[in-house]
Amino acid sequence: MNEKLLGFDVLKGSVILSVGSHAQGDKTWIIHTNNGTYELWIDDDGCGGCNDSYAFLESVDGIENIIGKTITNVDDKSNSYSATIKLMSDEAYCTIKIIHEQNGYYGFSYQLIKLT
């Protein structure tokens, strides 16, 4: 399997078929589409054991509104303390919120990995 790191724009034109369970504090989340399965991967960038930052999935709101719908637009905004990703269809949207608790030194990153 070749892992490919992607941005959320890759979901444009895809139909969201289902998603994995998700809870506050998760660092991964599975999204199944008609074009493949993707894993959201959240990383506390830094030097391993000395990194005191913590990035995690805070919430996924409205996902039930876009199941079975084609993603037509993606709005992805982030700063050093959070990210908000909005997945939009013509009829509805879902908001994904990632939080980065940190001391101002370390960053964080999030990407989709195509699994299939």
Salient structural properties:
116 residues, mainly beta, five-stranded antiparallel sheet, four-stranded antiparallel sheet, 9 strands, elongated
How would you describe this protein?
The protein is mainly β and 116 residues long. 3% of the residues lie in helices and 50% in strands. It has one domain. The chain contains 1 helix and 9 strands, in the order E-E-E-E-E-H-E-E-E-E. The longest helix is centred in the middle third of the chain and has 4 residues, at 63-66. The protein is elongated. The chain starts with a strand and ends with a strand.
Strand residue content: over 45%
Category from helices, strands and their pairing = mainly beta
Mean pLDDT: 89
Calculate the terminal CA-CA distance, rounded to whole Å: 8 Å
Number of helices: 1
> What is the 3D form?
elongated
Which stretches are poorly predicted, pLDDT < 50 over at least 5 residues? none
Q: Report the radius of gyration as a whole number of Å.
A: 14 Å
Helix content: under 10%
Which helices and strands appear, and what pairs or packs with what?
Layout: E1 5-6, E2 16-19, E3 28-33, E4 36-44, E5 54-61, H1 63-66, E6 73-78, E7 82-88, E8 93-101, E9 108-114
Antiparallel strand pairs: 1-9, 2-3, 3-4, 4-9, 5-8, 6-7, 7-8
Task: Summarize this structure briefly.
With 116 residues, the protein is mainly beta. The chain has 1 helix and 9 strands.
